[in-house]
Amino acid sequence: QVQLVESGGGLVQPGGSLRLSCAASGFTLDYYAMNWFRQSPGKEREGVSCISASDGSTYYADSVKGRFTISRDNAKNTVYLQMNDLKPEDTAVYYCATGSPSLWRDYPCSSVPGYIYLYDYWGQGTQVTVSS
Question: What is the DSSP string of 26-77?
């Protein structure tokens, strides 16, 4: 059974850091570009970051560029999102997602596509709250 499980969220003060993890089971992450999304109440889901399967190319939304870093550890079948200098506007539920290898195996991560139908696998989400 394919499953993605996020962890690492929590409450942090502005300027603080968190590292989110997305652990996969039932399939091997090696062959999939992986994406992080976030969604806060009343807002559309936002594609935050992507990391390719082929060469580790990365993409970041402008809102997080320079503060967030995506990485992957294929040996652990896990993708990470290191979040530094967190701001209150980063408060959201964070999700990892991917889909069919026919699309995601060679996806270069020039962006995070917003078409939800492209994603077959989602985690349950982890809450990040940035507040003093």
Answer: SS-GGG--EEEEEE-TTS--EEEEEE-SSS--EEE-TTTTTTEEEEEEGGGT
Using the CB atoms, write b or e for 27-50: b if 16+ within 10 Å.
bebeebbbbbbbeeeeeebbbbbb
Give residue-wise pLDDT tens across range 98-121: 998 889 999 999 999 989 899 999
The SS3 of residue 2 is coil
Mapping DSSP onto H, E and C, the string for 76-123 reads: HCEEEEEECCCCHHHCEEEEEEECCHHHHCCCCCCCCCCCHHHCCEEC
Residue 1, pLDDT score: 86
Provide φ and ψ at 74, rounded to 5°: -65, -30
pLDDT in tens, 56-86: 999 999 999 999 999 999 999 999 999 999 9
pLDDT, tens digit, 9 for 90 and up, residues 40-62 = 999 999 999 999 998 999 999 99
